[in-house]
Amino acid sequence: MRNLPIEDALNAVGDLLAVEEERICVVVVGGATLNLLGLVRRSTSDVDVIARAYRNEAGGLELSQAEPFPPALRHAIRTVARDFGLPADWMNAEIGAQLEHGLPPWILDDIT
User: Fold this and answer.
1) Predicted TM-score of the model (pTM)
2) Which of 24, 28, 79, 97 has a Cα-to-Cα distance from 63 of 20 to 30 A?
3) Can you tell me the distance from the alpha carbon of 52 to that of 96, in angstroms, rounded to the nearest whole number?
């Protein structure tokens, strides 16, 4: 992502959502995740979102399709792209179709 720490871009999205009093949780996978976890230190061209996460009434974690992104999230992504000089699709859900095919059964335990 053009030498921009992924954390900075994602924090900026979070800050914009907080200003709007929006709480949206996404599940990020791929190279961005490896960077966020400190497992690798290499640039990545995008942030892959496979799903949105939410707590059900019992407090359990559940996943839903990432797309369409909620309007507040779309706006925050566009704003960060503009402000940080990133491509419009720097954060995308192209991988989201994988959710329909199923995820590993342990995935909910690994989400942080």
Assistant:
1) 0.87
2) 79
3) 9
